[in-house]
Amino acid sequence: MEPSTATSDNLKGLLRRAGLRPPHTLTLAITGACNLQCRHCWVEGGVSTSAAHVPAAKLRRVMQEFADLGGQGLRLTGGEPLCHPEWLELLRFARHLEMPHLGVQTNANLIKKNQAAALRDLDFSGLSIQVSLDGACATSHDLVRGEGAFAGAMAGLQHLIAAGLAPRLSLFFTEMRHNLDEIPALLERADELGIASVVSGSLVRCGRAAEDALIAPAETEQYLRLLERYETDSGFRALYRKIGRIAALEWQTPNKTTRQDCTFVENPYLTAAGRLYPCVLCHADPYAVSGVFDKPLAEAFSLGAPLWASLLEISRSRAETIPQCHACADRDTCGAGCMGRAWGSCGDFFASEDRCALRRAVYAHRKSAANPS
């Protein structure tokens, strides 16, 4: 047996004994630098205090070790990953590790014809390119990302599409009060361009968004209007089923609202500062492993296992502990929601998830639709 295989087996055994899942897809921040300074940036990239570019040699070592540990995918992020001077060489290296999945998250403003051609030349069916687009028009997108960012993103998308990469593209949309009503138009635009999917996530009041008064979470009534549109507009419903994935609409489907444990450590997140979190949404420093770029990755996961096992126990106890959950008829469905979002918005694992009111409204709407009076 090769040493790397033994290490993989040993680590998987250690994690399973702790009640944790083995790592599947690593989100790896290769730089803290960014060409934009978005109002909702969770990691506050693109400022003088942001983490610098991670040396390429250290990134290659981490990627190789993750593959040796049985990892099935890498997702390169930042900051803006294309700010890293060796981003393309790093993608090529990751491609040759032959993991089934390789993704890159970008604002697309730095993608020109040559960059799109280089991505096409990776020639990899497992490649995915996620482009952030926070509106169907410049007014909405640029409010968050700065003047000209929408035009830059659309130009980058056009270069990628011209290179034949439309089937590899997804749009990521952050749901906010000023842009939620544009979701149908964004789906239509994406479909016209041949883009494979549109995925969204709601704004979390952390990072820069914690203090910014110009952006805010969408209101429950906006989501209920979107649900009504889904139910009454067959064209929108068909388009959503083809390329959309929005949490509030997914909650409307009964078989997609079954409670599950947190998926620690299935989708870990390694920052450009070298902190390893068990989940892309759970950025709790007391439960992070630091200095990961200067130690073997297997050691970092081993050090994290007891921390993340305790997090899993916290997650399982939230519905019994949070007062708002006690009388809630849907607590067995949502399991008290996302613990990482609760930490991000409140700094408290035993706070209600920031989407609690929305979840209740969607579940009530579903029940009302299923049992009309």
Overview of this structure, please?
- With 373 residues, the protein is an alpha/beta fold.
- It is 43% helix and 11% strand.
- The chain has 15 helices and 9 strands.
- The chain has helices at 3-17, 56-68, 87-95, 113-120, 138-145, 149-162, 183-193, 220-232, 234-243, 247-250, 297-321, 323-326, 331-334, 339-346, 356-370; strands spanning 25-29, 73-77, 101-106, 127-132, 169-175, 197-202, 244-245, 269-270, 276-277.
- The protein has a 9-stranded mixed β-sheet with strand order 7-6-5-4-3-2-1-8-9.
- The longest helix is centred in the last third of the chain and has 25 residues, at 297-321.
- The chain starts with a helix and ends with a helix.
- The model has no long low-confidence stretch (mean pLDDT 93).
- One of its GO terms (molecular function) is 4 iron, 4 sulfur cluster binding.
Quick structural overview:
Residues 20-237 form the Radical SAM core domain. The chain is of the alpha/beta class.
